[in-house]
Amino acid sequence: MSESRSSSGYHLATELVHIDSDAVKDNYNAASVPIYQTATFKQSQADGSGGEYDYSRSGNPTRTAVESHMAKIMKADRAFVVTTGMTALDVILRLVKTGQEIIAGDDLYGGTNRLLTYVSQYSGVKVHNV
Fold this sequence. Notes:
The protein is mainly alpha-helical. Helix content is 33%, strand content 6%. The longest helix has 13 residues, at 61-73.
């Protein structure tokens, strides 16, 4: 059985390991995307308008590269990467509307189960634990 090719002509396995170098500006031309382990970035202006990144929680070059790569392999216009499970849950709960459904695992963290139970009772969102 052969693996299907993407619109770029590459097999999925190749797409998964090939990172677009245009996603992040790298002054040193690293062969792979560097992991930026800093909380803040230097700014050229005192008002914080001097750079693409200011604080890692709001964005950093590593996350930009991951988002770009995820969008590429999922054939999406954009991907959004968050740093914690609760942040992911917050994003989901802000997007889901009354009458829609959430499919969740049956072995979730207790706080997540309580929150999803609350949402299903008071927001008209059905939650399926599988």
